[in-house]
Design goal:
about 525 residues, mainly alpha, four-stranded parallel sheet, globular
Length: about 525
């Protein structure tokens, strides 16, 4: 069976009825509900069980750690074992939960004075789409090609059908529209026009201002005085944005940096900017492929929650890619399991408890990627045919769709909604991640969205020759057949309209002939009457 972690020995037997699973004490030193055998019952076990739901166990002696009642399959009774022992830690008893920050507790937090009731602050996290589709580009050619070829149609359709909203991104500096680290009247006019075109006035959701600029590399080693100047500039942009959309949650991508939340960091702080923001958008990007970064990422997000003092919502930005250590660039994809383990689950597990005992968690989780990488890392891009471009884009599209399916399952397993409250108006000609109409096309092949796969590499000129054989001819033939059908329909409509016009003309002619005949008859009758009178 598939699982998110390697299986150990089988879990101890439990007593279950057909309606529910009765609590049972752990045996053989193992914890009931702990399928991952890490000494606690948390989201990792819930994901493990739900991913193997209704599957039969392998043949012995291979272990089956999700089958707690030893009926040779993973079913609802095993799921109940996890839920009824949620938060239990090895050696602490079945009904006990961890105190403190509750790092692995999805419903997390600190119990209220021993009452066992969790004091969780704020709504449950939402899942969002932050992918930078070329439809959002300021380049008209790039945007038009993406529209014509329906770039990302499978992921966009899936997210729309599942109620996964889009997280708006204003690229190129945000309010500093040309990213030259100076606010001009032209910048403010351009940004205001962007807001008017793409963000409704009453929108109250998050908006990312992507302003890294020349100051970005300076932040780690700048003096506090220099950092204060940088923060003043950033805050000035926030104030202008908020004056135009007072209900929106504006904030800057990537702050605080991961380097700023480690215990050894001694550089300048950005807490004043974070607490002034309407939202913060820390990233969990990592290139330690194969390594386990879950602890590091969870500590980073918990530090972000602490720095925001629980008053500013935290929307975590994940990336499915990692850098090539030799060639550079974000060329390769993590496996879905590694992305969930090192980025998604640590973000969902992150907790910070304030002085009043309230437990805070993230407000949302989003996946960021950019289709421009396909162009950057494909040799001889301008020599590609349309069919080859579609093939490369579809490969990335299916990866994104598979990731979102797994992310949705992770949030559902944690019993949290994956719907963003507000929709944002589509913006095809701007560098902002806003809603794109869903594609009305065939469902993605099951094989293309399988969650377990080796990390693919964007094809280059050398790999493209072998990948040409994998081009979906069915898809192209369907598009051609659709065009033919539409042409045939239009021909039929034109023929019908011509026939209708002819019938109308013939009817008019007949009516005119009848009128002429009736007029002649009337004239003849009148002439007869006049002759009779004369006589």
């Amino acid at each position: 069976m598939n699982s998110f972690k390697n299986r150990g020995s089988a879990a101890c037997a439990i007593v279950a009825s057909t309606a529910f699973l009765a609590p049972a004490a752990p045996c053989f030193g193992q914890l009931l509900g702990d399928s991952t055998l890490d000494g606690r019952v948390d989201i990792a076990d819930l994901l493990d069980v739900t991913s193997n739901m209704k599957l039969m166990c392998p043949v012995e002696p291979e272990p089956c750690s999700t089958d707690f009642n030893r009926n040779d399959r993973t079913d609802a009774n095993d799921l109940m074992a996890v839920l009824e022992n949620w938060g239990t830690v090895a050696g602490a008893g079945v009904a006990s939960h961890e105190s403190g920050n509750g790092a692995g507790d999805v419903d997390g937090g600190v119990p209220n004075a021993g009452s066992g009731v969790l004091n969780l602050v704020g709504p449950a996290p939402v899942l969002m789409d932050s992918i930078y589709y070329d439809q959002y580009s300021r380049s008209s050619n790039r945007s038009q090609l993406a529209h014509d070829l329906d770039q990302g149609m499978h992921t966009r359709r899936f997210n729309t059908e599942e109620g996964i909203g889009v997280l708006p991104y204003c690229y190129g500096g945000g309010v500093d529209y040309d990213a030259d680290m100076h606010y001009t009247d032209q910048d403010l006019d351009d940004f205001e026009a962007w807001l008017d075109a793409h963000i409704p006035y009453d929108y109250d959701g998050p908006v990312v201002l992507d302003m890294e600029g020349d100051w970005w590399p300076m932040m780690d080693h700048a003096s506090q005085a220099t950092m204060d100047q940088i923060m003043d500039f950033y805050i000035e942009g926030l104030e202008y944005a908020e004056s135009m959309r007072p209900n929106a949650q504006f904030g800057y991508w990537g702050l605080p940096k991961k380097s700023m939340t480690v215990s050894t960091y001694s550089g300048p702080g950005v807490d004043r900017l974070l607490q002034r923001s309407g939202a913060i958008f820390p990233d969990t990007y990592e290139s330690n492929v194969g390594g386990n970064d879950a602890v590091r990422m969870q500590a980073h997000i918990e530090a972000c929650l602490e720095k925001s003092k629980g008053e500013v919502p935290v929307y975590v930005q994940m990336s499915p890619r990692y850098r090539d250590q030799e060639l550079g660039g974000w060329r390769h994809f993590h496996s879905n399991d590694e992305l969930l383990r090192d980025q998604a689950i640590p973000a969902l597990d992150a907790r910070w408890t304030d002085a009043a005992g309230g437990t805070h968690r993230i407000a949302g989780l989003a996946l960021w990627d950019a289709y421009v990488y396909v162009k950057q890392y494909t040799q001889e891009w301008y020599d590609l045919s349309i069919d080859e471009i579609i093939m490369l884009w579809d490969e990335v599209d299916f990866i994104h769709q598979g990731i979102y399916k797994d992310l949705k399952m992770a949030l559902e397993a944690a019993d949290v909604p994956s719907v963003i409250a507000e929709d944002v108006v589509a913006a095809p000609e701007s560098d902002v991640a806003v809603s794109v109409p869903p594609a009305a096309s065939e469902p993605a092949p099951v094989a293309a969205v399988a969650s377990e796969r080796t990390p693919p590499v964007i094809p280059t000129a050398s790999t493209r020759k072998s990948s040409k054989k994998k081009v979906s001819t069915k898809k192209l033939s369907k598009k051609k057949s659709k065009k033919k059908k539409s042409k045939a329909k239009s021909k039929k409509k034109s023929k019908k309209s011509k026939a209708k016009k002819k019938s109308k003309k013939s009817k008019k002619k007949k009516k005119s002939k009848k009128k002429k005949k009736s007029k002649k008859k009337k004239k003849s009758k009148a002439s007869k009457r006049s002759t009779k009178r004369k006589r």
